[in-house]
Amino acid sequence: MSYQAWFECIRCPDERYPLDQVIYECECGGLMEVRHDMDALQHRSGPEWRDLFERRYMRTMWPYGSGVWGKKELVCPAVADDNVVSMYEGGSNLFWAERLGRELGVKELWIKQCGNSHTGSFKDLGMTVLVSMVNQMRCDGQDIPAIVCASTGDTSAALAAYGAAAEIPVIVLLPKDKISVSQLIQPIANGATTLSIRTDFDGCMRLVRELVQRENVYLANSMNSLRIEGQKTVAIEMVQQFDWNVPDWVIIPGGNLGNVTALGKGFLEMQQLGIIDRIPGIAVAQAANANPLFKSYLNNFESFEAVAAKETLASAIRIGDPVSWERAIRVMRQFDGVVEEATENELADASARADRTGLFTCPHTGVALVALEKLLARRVIAPDSRVVVVSTAHGLKFPDVKVKYHQDELREQDVTPTRANHPIEVDADFDQVRRAILESLESTLTTSASLN
Question: Do you find a cis peptide bond into 63, omega within 30 degrees of 0?
Fold first, then answer.
């Protein structure tokens, strides 16, 4: 069967636009979203969709072994298989954080490790769809000389890698001195034209919007809803990894708010197709220094105002004027969602605590873990719940934060490192080595007892 998808404005859905049309906003100012022909999709039953996805999952038949393209009919049927640009993204580990969950007081805690992907973040899931669509458009004769994005680090890495694979030029605008060296080197290594702008992410985003309006370049930021279609497969995949059972809660770090938009869309579409019979609770976690959605939540989403984002260790979500706020609020209302915030001290300590249980978390995952603690304390999340925390990036992208935490160099950020771990320097002498080990073991037991 032939499946169709198109763009619609989120405010005035009477007009449809093909996916190969270069359009991001309606004349009314509303963002576009991808809509699917649900009547056609419902020709398969929910169990039939589950069976199809299971047969494709992580197999080698191109391109369906990808965690994204294995759901192609629900994602982007407009791209021919030969024009898909994929690095077999998705399929990331759903980690059972048994020890951490026990310490926090929740029955089942799982970490969806989206950072275990090609460029080290969940952005790969959306970028494979966007770059594939551009590849299709170029193959069909459209003049698209380059793809451009503003980024706090992860979007630029994903775009540069997928653009390089497709031989499509990439331009990235990054806020100078506000991303990690690990993130900066990724687009540089992949050959992207990399501009270091003396501003913050919101300033970079304003420049990118002007570029796409005045020049013939294609926008890759999450206001382009093709990205949302790839990212929504996180919702499908986590349910699949639970043998098609829905968790009680999903906690999502929130910056530009595309991810909560995407996961909400994924759950709702699965419910509509009969793949699942209920939806989970959704919580969004923001850094207190960049918290416009949290402030909107405090007034029941009656209004939304951008904020001037301050410095935060969770640099990828240091966004005060998120593009997807309207779509995100719609999702939060549909799910009766909640929003929490985390201070710099809270997020740094939560990340270190998680690392002590075998994880290696990014600061944004720390923000989500703080939200979990607070929601458990307020009994919003019950202790007997099954909770999934969406980990958006790999911890290796943020080594400076971890190094400075353990060296107690984050005092200016009001961080007191209660779980700092220092290397012990001794001579090559057995007695010194033995004494250092015994003292460390004794100290570790004492510290563990006091922290827990």
Answer: yes
What is the structure's pLDDT at 413?
93
Task: Tell me what the mean pLDDT of segment 129-138 comes to.
Answer: 98
Residue-wise pLDDT tens digits, 330-341: 999 999 999 999
389 within domain boundaries? yes
User: Does residue 282 belong to any structural domain of this protein?
Assistant: yes
HSE on the CB side for 187, CA within 13 Å?
A: 29
Given pLDDT bands bounded at 50, 70 and 90, which one contains residue 443? confident
| Domain-embedded: residue 213 | no
Distance CA 154, CA 162 (A): 13
448 confidence band (pLDDT: 50, 70, 90): low
Structure-token pair, residue 437: 């080990």
Q: By the 8 A CB rule, do 386 and 419 touch?
A: no
- What is the average per-residue pLDDT within 432-451? 81
Say if 382 falls within a structural domain: yes
| Model confidence, pTM | 0.94
Strand ranges of the sheet holding 193-197, from the earlier edge strand across to the other edge? 193-197, 170-175, 147-150, 218-219
CATH value at residue 342: 3.40.50.1100
- In whole angstroms, what is the distance from residue 115 CA to residue 182 CA? 14
CA of residue 74 relative to chain centroid, distance: 19
